[in-house]
Amino acid sequence: MSDVSQPERGERELIRRLQRLLALPTGAGAADVAVAGVPFGDDMAVLPTGSTPWLWTVDMLMDGVDFDSAVHNWSVIGRKAMAVNLSDCAAMAVVPVAALCAVSLSNRLSMSDALELIRGAHEFGLRHGCPIVGGDTNSWDHPTVVSISIAARPLPDRPPVRRDGARAGDTLWVTGPLGGSILGRHLTFEPRLELSWQISRQVQPHAMIDISDGLALDLSRVLEASRCGAVLWAEALEAVIHPDARRLSASDGCPARDHALYDGEDFELLVVVPAGVREVACRNLGLYPLGQITDEPGLCLADGEARAPIPVHGWEHFR
Amino acid sequence: MSDVSQPERGERELIRRLQRLLALPTGAGAADVAVAGVPFGDDMAVLPTGSTPWLWTVDMLMDGVDFDSAVHNWSVIGRKAMAVNLSDCAAMAVVPVAALCAVSLSNRLSMSDALELIRGAHEFGLRHGCPIVGGDTNSWDHPTVVSISIAARPLPDRPPVRRDGARAGDTLWVTGPLGGSILGRHLTFEPRLELSWQISRQVQPHAMIDISDGLALDLSRVLEASRCGAVLWAEALEAVIHPDARRLSASDGCPARDHALYDGEDFELLVVVPAGVREVACRNLGLYPLGQITDEPGLCLADGEARAPIPVHGWEHFR
What we know:
The structure is a homodimer.
Chain A: H1 11-21, E1 45-47, E2 54-62, H2 74-92, E3 94-106, H3 111-127, E4 132-140, E5 145-154, E6 171-174, H4 185-188, H5 193-203, E7 207-210, H6 215-226, E8 229-233, H7 234-239, H8 243-252, H9 256-262, E9 269-273, H10 279-284, E10 288-294, E11 298-303, E12 306-309
Parallel strand pairs in A: 3-4, 8-11
Antiparallel strand pairs in A: 1-2, 2-5, 3-5, 6-9, 6-10, 7-9, 8-10, 11-12
Helix pairs in contact in A: 2-3, 2-5, 8-9
């Protein structure tokens, strides 16, 4: 079944091809699914229903890739499986309502481990008003896979924030310091749900995304969707380097700034704020400045008068 | 993390425990999720929204368990991943609207195999008005896992058919012959969507389920949810043995009737018809009679005057 004549790989190329493959034929009965205005490839898909749409997302986590069951306990793993989905809701500033949970449990798991996994997900979901209401339980002889799907509603007073609305002159902000999440925060992070609602209401951002695959890669997704570029201020970037990034840098020799730019699973929000909004409004929300949206495509670093392109890479599946 | 003091295993025990674990605390903000009347554990979960609820289901398929990528082509595998979810919609006689698809692709897959998998799912979904509108793409060094989730609406004129409404005196019917699906039908079956809508409208069934884990096991789920029992007529059961079950019986020596009772993945519908409905209405829908619902709990086989209990087992994960 393999086509060796196709050398391209990588998740970005796969998603690009899927966007073409899954484009709905015009006149298809189900085309009303696509009319709610959120394009394929945003953090959540949209199901319009009369006046208020449902939003809908899914994330799949695998043992040995997204967590390590030899080290982490199953309740914490379940919490992460729920939290990454809640972070997708935060990325669009919407309100999670309920979750489905599908698992392929390793046959080596005990009943109590299996229950801990789902309990960890459910209890963390409940804290955010999002219980597990159904699912699918399977088992096999390979490592455990857990997939959670969340249905959410828009805020009553604000539409979902998309990733394709950034415009030249907008300012770039982030909800917290970045890099080195592998030292533990990738499991214990708090999805920025309530903060995302405040941001949506108080600064009405043009675009937003959660940083799951690294600042550079996730920012490039916003820029690609919005057909623009961005410049990051070197001093501002320096100020959002997480202490974990510095610790990691001390042990692996990779610059701390690169950890902040390229490490995945920070799950902070990258916020594109309209040019007219006063800086103090962003600072009052606890946001950190990062840079500015530009007309010229691409991503670059500004240090005084100097400009240098920032290479775009990060965590990418299917290489 | 293992608790060796807990000997119980098996998917049924796991689901029983999950039903207790996931019971919503009264007063929880999200408790309105549970009020639409469809209990946890039915074929789909319910998201009420004003007047018309959404229904929601998920199924996860694993290479080497639900399909074999060494033998089956990826497009057919994708079709099955969509079809098992559409069959859940048929089980409740509801109308699928859109799907999410999450995958953990084996790193040995080519780009074209990965696209074929998702194309197979999407095109089969589109045929039933249910395109893929989003998802999550991952890869790893283990066999491929694919999980599809479907959102559906009730028929405009009929509520979803649950599995807990069977009553003594109701008659039991099935939409097609059973057993031996492993010879190929488990991949190529047609989910009984349109037929389920006709059934819902014309005989207003008290309960319905799709046969995914075997007639005996899926029927026992209806009986457990409805707190009643059933008797199957030996002659009727004989008449719904699929030719594939007889072929399999000839090669493995296991009685063809046992294949009809215990083989999984027929994806026919088991229909519980109110006592008052005339037989001809069921026969006109192409249904095959199977037996009757009883007050006494348990499942038994009636052959003339003789009654024998039918052991309940079937495909069960997490043994």
